[in-house]
Write a structure and sequence with these properties.
There is one protein chain. With about 180 residues, this protein is mainly α. It has 2 domains: about 1-110, no CATH class; about 110-180. Helix content is about 75%, strand content about 10%. The protein has 7 helices and 3 strands, in the order βααββααααα. It has a 3-stranded mixed sheet with strand order 1-2-3. Helix 2 (about 25-45) runs antiparallel to helix 3 (about 70-90) and helix 3 (about 70-90) packs antiparallel against helix 5.
Length: about 180
């Protein structure tokens, strides 16, 4: 297994640090992300599949598997990351790492392309109806969730002068849905 570190995986933490994030917050975030990705990796190994490369990226990792995998195995692998994040949240109970783990677990369950929930939805629908249906279902769900999060963010901005982070996140989801 080859491990690579992408440019963005170095730049994003540095940018957050320069923007004022504390070292403990960055380490908590890093540990939550690594635990999440370990959930995927451990599941791949339990399924006796070979990992070619793991590339650390700004928002997680890209894992390339050498072997062919079934839709069922891919669903298990996709859901293992959020499951690991939620497990870490319950084990830690409190603190930055717990909060980041909860956030990662919940966000990654959204049925949006490029997120684990989107991959699980794609594989589930593809298993029963074929890959074109899986792609369509994932794109539609991604757009719906991006729009709903955008609506909530606009409401929070107008009502409470908050929610800008959700607005940015909804735009990110819209871009990810359009790129797939």
């Amino acid at each position: 297994m080859k491990i690579k570190i992408g440019f963005g995986a170095v730049v994003l933490p540095l940018a957050l640090f320069m923007a004022g994030a504390s070292t403990s917050s960055l380490l908590s975030l890093l540990s939550a992300v690594l635990f999440h990705e370990l959930g995927h990796i451990i599941t791949i190994l339990i399924l006796k599949k070979k990992i070619r490369t793991v590339t650390l990226e700004p928002f997680g990792a890209r894992i390339i598997i050498e072997d062919e995998i079934s839709y069922v195995h891919e669903i298990l692998i996709a859901l293992a990351g959020p499951a690991a994040s939620l497990l870490l949240f319950f084990l830690l109970g409190d603190g930055n790492a717990a909060d980041y783990s909860l956030f990662l677990g919940v966000i990654n369950l959204l049925p949006v392309p490029t997120l684990d929930g989107g991959r699980a939805l794609y594989c589930t629908v593809s298993y029963f109806s074929g890959p074109l249906s899986g792609d369509l279902a994932t794109r539609i769900c991604g757009k719906i969730f991006a729009f709903l999060i955008w609506l909530v963010s606009v409401y929070l901005i107008l009502r409470y002068d908050g929610g800008f982070g959700l607005l940015v996140f909804s735009c990110f989801l819209a871009v990810m849905t359009a790129r797939k």
